[in-house]
Design goal:
The complex is a heterodimer of chains A (611) and B (779). With 611 residues, chain A is an all-alpha fold. Chain A has a domain of 173 residues. In chain A, 70% of the residues lie in helices and 0% in strands. In chain A, α5 runs antiparallel to α6, α15 runs antiparallel to α16 and α21 packs antiparallel against α22. The termini of chain A are far apart. About 2% of the residues of chain A have low confidence. Chain B has 779 residues and is mainly α. In chain B, α1 runs antiparallel to α2 and α34 runs antiparallel to α35. Chain B starts with 5 loop residues before the first strand and ends with a helix. The mean pLDDT of chain B is 81. Classes of the chains: A mainly alpha (611), B mainly alpha (779). At the A-B interface, α16, α18 and α19 of A face α5, α8 and α10 of B. Chain B: This is Anaphase-promoting complex subunit 5. Chain B: Pfam families: ANAPC5. Chain B: One of its GO terms (biological process) is cell division.
Chain lengths: 611, 779
């Protein structure tokens, strides 16, 4: 068995998953699998993979490129190969039941959820039960959405629960009860019923129970991408996430990989899925490591045209503030799949940060031309308006994005930023709060909350939120700086000093201007009456001016402080040097510096022997 | 590109051409153009901001200005202001404007350009002054605009409406702006000697690396692009469209101008939701349907128009709605429905105390009912009473137009009922005075001139009628009105004997009327009436019959046309020997619309026709008495032509009864009047009768006359006959020529003049042959 056949195995499983998830109405999962399937390197090109050489041609391969012959009679599935066993399959049902299911499914596709659920009433097959309960759940979700009358509207109570959830959960529990097991099916081992239970528990905020159920589901059927998405969204700390991943790896190793017929040198498709999940988790927790990049590059060799993976890479670059790299990656994604709007809001964030107005305007035009009513498009347009200082219009578009997709992650946070710009801290706080309620891992929202409370002079609150942000992204110096500032305001000078020193550690890059941090630290030590340290940091601040040729208020103040310090210690020449070159600062400071220089010069002159 | 694929999108106020105006204003404020260009530049800017006006000398159909049009206006304006240097100034402005337009290279730069226009504005003079004081003199603009100024409010309106646009509308604005300026690229390149390269984007990307080329190239990959390419998007501001529509309604109502295909495409391709916002669109459709005589379409659009008006809670429009409905019914001759709608309209107007509308309704009603004397109604007791009421109620300053119409109606009423010339002239003079002082209301002045022309025509003063026609023609800008005036001119020419000129004049009008079905119907009726009359004169009875049949199939409400038709029908019957049918027509008309009390003119005219019937029945005495009555009636009402006709009938009757001396005395007495009259037929007839009477008298007295006297008398007779024959020849009245030749033959026999006899006999033979030929030929 060679690597090429292994890719066939992966394709086979993804193909199966696409079909299965699609037949259950799990469209996002199905779409993901299909995109992955079409993003896989072709068999001919994969031969180069082992020699670790990248083919030139795969770079130009787009998912829309057509085969020469659309009809292929040669493709056969080696049915006897145990690797090609379907991992999960619903038991066969009578054709009459199947007809009903098909009818119900078409109703589901037409979004007639109640009718779909009604059609499947009384049917015992797990597939029918899943669709019935899932459509019941969606029906109430839809009604709940309709009742809220818009985002942040009068009836927009995001805590309102879906009244059908307890009923569905009760029914699922009854089904899982061993006594009630159907003679042909074990419901408690059905990955999709477990998945449904998992998402319902998540809505009920039973996080750990939900995670357990989702993990159980994924262990039975790991190709349910929808389930992975729910699981990842429920994770709120990195350690736990990594533990779960480890758990999965060992479980799959025992279950699939240690089988006698599997060559240990090869990678099983499930391992690939787990690798992808690992990358997503690391990305979501803002991790950067060589291992991560290696895994990503490896996967990109297998899936050279899988835009989702490319997006993950771009997001990692974005989180590491390598905006140029992220922009290039998004350009590449757009070139290969121009009509894919998924995650393009992130691309617009990058262009926003890079202040590329013109490019952002074209992106907004482009996205509008594809689909005006996608939340991503609205976010892009909103970002454009924000860059044009049209904050009200930006908020309007963020609202629209949220109306289209209440779970649009970035819209809540970005809307919060806009409210901050409009000096409406209270509205900003609500937006940020909704953002963290939607995605607890959104450090920007936590950070935003901290900023909003800081504006309102509620520093203790602010500190809490900065700490939350810091837990999520401990290597972000902006958060540490904010923490330092907060501690200072709360008179916790030592903690403040620690925070600022952390910033200095993170800024250990050449030619980076740390003058303001040095100055802050000096002032903090001044408050602690540690004059040696004050001198040390004032000197460091001054050195920044000398070494990096940076002239700002801090360096000027440090220069003035040093000149005063030296004159006090009768080091008149030094004092003269500090004060004589003082030319940046307020008129009062300049005057003060001049008088010090004069005094120092007089003192120096008076010391000199008469000629 | 087919106009069917046009997609019309409305914005509150912005449209691509306004970007050009903004660029021109910015150039003016920055003072980068020579100060001499300010006047022509501002003239053009103001012209386009104000939009088209009905008071413009050149009436154009409503359309949105194109870039070329604006540039052309700038050039014209520069040349007008400075005939010598104007061309250079125009080049300067053109280059500036095109440069400003072509430096906008992306949506973002358009965005920045429009929002930066705010910097031209200051709240008031004081703020402007303090602004100028606080910035370095090098960056002080030449002019700043206060927000309340004319240009300032335009800029403010543009900027604020741009800011209120949603992104997709901004995108559309950008796309339509790109299309709008596309045609000027070659001019711009020529002017600046640029080839292939465009100027740097002044308002767009300023940051390094902000290179949108990748995204620009991706637009080609959009699948919707191929569909969009087929659909041309036209972005119009709602504000402009409302102005254009109002303008279009006015020119349609007043001048009957044709809607351009471009404008029609805009109206037809407006989405339903947008047309709901601007109900006038339906009103234009209504007016157009009315022109095309599409009853159903007009009816539907009128209802749709008022339904949308109602949805805007404009309930006060209800009586106007009913008035329009009545007009619609009246246009299509649904008299009963028209009266019902009018009744309702009057009662609603009364309820709403809308005096202006009420006066208008009554004026309309008078004009409507005067043409339909048989229609029973309970609106008012008598026309005189109504007119008295209208004259007194409309004397208010604000109803000037109605006031002049009231006097015109009074004059019409006088002319119809045969009132005195003095009172008609009085009303006409008053109407003229008011309409001249009415400001810009040309339509009432034109209608006054038309009425005056008709009056003088009936009074036999063809020169005055002609003058009034000319004045009306000069003053009128309505195509349909002009056609009617030309028709009247053709009638005048026809009466004066210039038959060919008359028909060729009518022929020339064909082009004007092709698009207006109602007008073309009216016009062809007039043409048929003249053709019939001419055919009867030329004894071409089959042709006349066919014309009359065509006329019979028409349903026309105009009372004069109806009268003329009936008259010609009776005359045709008379000429073809159907005396009883002619008599029946006479009886019918005299008891319906041509009653003595209501329509004296036609009453007299038909009675004169009756005289001809008497003549055929040899009832000369009755003929004499009737024609004397007619003469009395005509003279008291100033119907000069009818009076002359009466005199001719009297003469004829006298000749018939053998009172040649009296006949000769009468015709001699009125001879100067006949000479003065420009009606060639009457003049020729007078000469014919004069000759006839003279011949009879000569026969009786020849023995008593001296040789010289004989010679004189015979010479006079021959001269009269020659004049008559010449006249009749000119108007191709063959029967009358025959009569004259018979007289000539008689005279020749009487005086034994072989040569004359031979000549007369030969001519008589020829004319008989001609008559025979004409009366048997089909056309």
């Amino acid at each position: 068995m060679n690597q090429s056949l292994e890719l066939d195995h992966l394709k086979f499983q993804l193909r199966e998953a696409t079909e299965l998830l699609g037949s259950l109405g799990l469209y996002q999962g199905s779409k993901w699998c299909a995109e992955a399937l079409n993003g896989i390197i072709s068999n001919d090109l994969s031969k180069n993979l082992s020699s670790d050489k990248k083919s030139d041609s795969d770079e130009t391969l787009s998912i829309y490129d057509l085969e020469d012959n659309e009809y292929d009679n040669n493709e056969t599935t080696p049915v006897n190969d145990p690797l090609y066993n379907v991992i999960f399959k619903f038991p066969k049902v009578q054709s009459k039941i199947n007809d009903k299911y098909q009818f119900a499914k078409s109703l589901f596709d037409c979004k007639e959820f109640d009718r779909c659920s009604q059609t499947l009433n009384g049917l015992k097959s797990s597939k029918c039960i899943f669709l019935r309960l899932y459509s019941k759940f969606l029906s109430h979700e839809k009604k709940k959405e309709e009742e809220t009358e818009g985002v942040l509207g009068q009836n927009d109570n995001y805590n309102s629960t879906n009244p059908s959830i307890p009923l569905i959960l009760k029914e699922l529990d009854q089904l899982f009860d061993e006594n009630n097991n159907h003679k042909f099916e074990n419901y408690s081992e059905n990955p999709f019923l477990l998945y449904l239970k998992g998402i319902l528990l998540l809505r009920q905020k039973f996080n750990s129970l939900a995670q357990q159920t989702l993990i159980k589901s994924l262990k039975i059927y790991p190709f349910n991408w929808s389930c992975w998405v729910e699981l990842i969204s429920s994770l709120n700390n990195l350690d736990q996430s990594l533990q779960i991943l480890k758990d999965f790896e060992s479980f799959f190793e025992i279950k699939f990989l240690n089988k006698s017929n599997f060559n240990n040198n090869q990678i099983h498709p499930i391992q690939i899925i787990v690798k992808i999940v690992k990358i997503v988790i690391n990305q979501e927790f803002f991790q950067q490591s060589m291992e991560l990049y290696d895994d990503l590059n490896y996967l990109l060799q297998i899936f050279p045209n899988f835009s989702y993976l490319k997006t993950q890479k771009a997001l990692i670059s974005y989180h590491s503030m390598d905006y140029q790299e992220a922009e290039d990656l998004f350009d590449d994604i757009l070139t290969n799949d121009p009509l894919r709007l998924d995650d393009m809001d992130i691309y617009s964030n990058i262009l926003y940060v890079m202040e590329k107005k013109s490019k952002l305007s074209y992106l907004a035009q482009f996205a509008s031309s594809i689909d005006r009513f996608r939340s991503e498009t609205c976010c892009i347009v909103a970002n454009y308006y924000s860059l044009k200082f049209e904050h009200e219009k930006a908020i309007m578009y963020y609202r629209r994005a949220l109306t289209l997709n209440r779970n649009c992650l970035s819209a809540w946070t970005l809307m919060g930023h806009e409210f901050v710009e409009l000096k409406n801290s209270h509205a900003a706080i609500e937006s940020y709060r909704r953002a963290v309620d939607t995605n607890i891992k959104d450090f920007k929202a936590w950070y935003g909350l901290g900023q909003a409370y800081e504006v309102l002079d509620m520093h203790l609150y602010s500190l809490y939120y900065y700490q939350r942000a810091c837990t999520l992204k401990p290597l972000d110096k902006r958060i540490w700086q904010a923490l330092g500032n907060c501690y200072e305001k709360l008179n916790k000078f030592k903690d403040s000093i620690k925070s600022y020193k952390k910033v200095l550690n993170l800024n250990e890059v050449e030619n980076f201007d740390n003058s303001s941090i040095f100055f802050k630290l000096a002032l903090l030590y001044e408050k602690l009456l540690n004059s040696d340290k004050v001198y040390e940091f004032m000197k460091l601040c001054y050195n920044e001016e000398i070494n990096l040729n940076v002239k700002n208020d801090e360096t000027a103040k440090a220069r003035l402080w040093l000149s005063k310090f030296e004159i006090k210690n009768k080091n008149f020449e030094l004092a003269y040097n500090y004060a004589s070159d003082f030319n940046h600062g307020t008129s009062q400071e300049i005057e003060e510096a001049r008088s010090i220089a004069r005094e120092a010069r007089n003192r120096i002159n008076s010391k000199l022997p008469n000629l | 590109m087919s106009k069917d694929n046009l997609k019309v999108v409305l914005t509150p106020s912005l449209a691509p051409y306004k970007v050009v105006l903004l660029a021109l204003i910015a150039a003016y404020c920055a003072g980068i153009l020579p100060s001499k260009t300010n006047r022509p530049l501002l003239t053009v800017i103001v012209k386009y901001i104000e939009g088209p006006s009905v008071l413009d000398k050149n009436i154009q159909t409503g359309s949105l200005p194109s870039l070329f049009e604006i540039l052309r206006s700038l050039r014209e304006s520069c040349l007008k202001a400075y005939p010598e240097e104007g061309s250079n100034y125009a080049n300067d402005i053109e280059i500036r404007a095109l440069h400003a337009l072509w430096t906008l290279q992306s949506l973002d730069s358009l965005y920045s350009f429009i929002t930066r226009a705010k910097s031209l504005l200051v709240k008031n003079y004081r703020e402007g002054k303090s602004f100028i004081d606080n910035i370095p003199s090098s960056s002080v603009p030449k002019y700043l605009l206060t927000e309340s100024s004319f240009l300032g409010s335009f800029v403010l309106n543009c900027v604020s409406s741009f800011e209120s646009l949603e992104f997709d509308k901004i995108d559309l604005l950008w796309k339509s702006f790109v299309k709008f300026r596309a045609s000027s690229k070659s001019i711009y390149e020529d002017r600046l000697q640029l080839r292939g390269s465009l100027p740097s984007d002044l308002f767009g990307a300023a940051k390094d690396g902000d290179d949108p080329h990748l995204l620009v190239s991706l637009f080609d990959k959009l699948p919707s692009l191929s569909i969009e390419a087929k659909n041309e998007v036209l972005l119009i501001s709602q504000e402009d469209l409302v102005n254009l529509l109002e303008y279009q309604v006015k020119i349609l109502e007043n001048y009957g101008a044709v809607t351009t295909p471009e404008f029609r495409a805009i109206l037809n391709n407006m989405p339903q939701s947008e047309t709901g916002k601007i109900p006038t669109v339906h009103y234009i459709h209504y007016l157009e349907c009315l022109r095309e005589a599409d009853y159903e379409g007009a009816f539907n659009y009128l209802h749709r128009y008022f339904d949308y008006m109602m949805s805007y809670r404009r309930t006060a429009f209800y009586h106007y709605a009913l008035l329009s409905l009545a007009t619609l019914y009246a246009t299509f001759n649904c008299d009963g429905e028209a009266i019902r709608a009018m009744e309702e309209s009057i009662s609603v107007a009364r309820e709403n105390k809308d005096v202006e509308c009420l006066n208008f309704l009554l004026t309309w009603l008078f004009n409507y009912l005067k043409d339909r004397p048989n229609l029973t109604h309970e609106f008012y007791v008598s026309n005189d009473q109504l007119l008295q009421f209208l004259k007194s109620r409309t004397s208010n300053e604000s109803f000037k137009s109605l006031h002049t119409t009231a006097y015109q109606s009074d004059a019409v009423q006088n002319m119809l009922s045969g009132g005195s010339v003095v009172s008609t002239l009085e009303s006409l003079t008053k109407s003229l005075y008011i309409s001249v002082n009415c400001g810009n209301d040309f339509s009432s002045f034109v209608s006054h001139c038309s009425l005056a022309s008709s009056f003088w025509y009936r009074a036999g003063q063809f020169d005055l009628a002609e003058i009034y026609n000319e004045i009306a023609l000069d003053s009128s800008r309505s195509a349909s009105e002009q056609v009617l005036i030309q028709t009247r001119k053709a009638y005048l020419e026809f009466t004066q004997g210039s038959i060919e000129e008359s028909f060729s004049r009518l022929e020339k009008q064909q082009k004007q009327i092709s698009s207006d079905l109602r007008l073309s119907k009216d016009f062809s009726n007039h043409q048929l009436l003249l053709l019939t009359e001419q055919s009867i004169r030329a004894s071409n009875y089959y042709a006349a019959q066919s014309y009359l049949e065509k006329l019979e199939a028409q349903d026309y409400p105009n009372i004069d046309m109806q009268g003329q038709h009936k008259y010609l029908l009776a005359q045709w019957n008379l000429e073809t020997g159907n005396y009883s049918a002619a008599h029946e027509i006479f009886l019918e008309t005299i008891s319906t619309f041509a009653k003595r009390e209501t329509n004296k003119f036609w009453f007299i005219k038909f009675n004169l026709l009756n005289c001809d019937l008497f003549l055929q029945s040899d009832l000369s005495v009755r003929m004499l008495s009737t024609s004397i009555q007619c003469l009395n009636l005509s003279t008291s009402s100033g119907y000069f032509i009818l009076a002359l006709e009466s005199i001719l009938r009297i003469t004829r009757a006298l000749i018939n009864v053998g009172s040649y001396e009296d006949a000769k005395a009468v015709i001699d007495a009125y001879s100067p009047l006949f000479e003065q009259s420009a009606d060639l037929e009457l003049k020729s007839k007078a000469n014919e009768y004069k000759a006839a009477a003279s011949i009879h008298l000569y026969k009786q007295r020849q023995n008593k006359l001296s040789k010289e006297d004989k010679f004189t008398v015979i010479s006079k007779i021959i001269k009269s006959l020659e004049i008559a024959i010449d006249g009749f020849k000119k108007i191709s009245s063959f029967k009358e020529i025959e009569n004259c030749l018979v007289l000539q033959e008689n005279l020749a026999t009487l005086i034994n003049h072989t040569e004359l006899l031979q000549h007369a006999s030969k001519a008589l033979e020829n004319i008989k042959e001609k008559i025979e030929q004409n009366s048997t030929s089909l056309y």
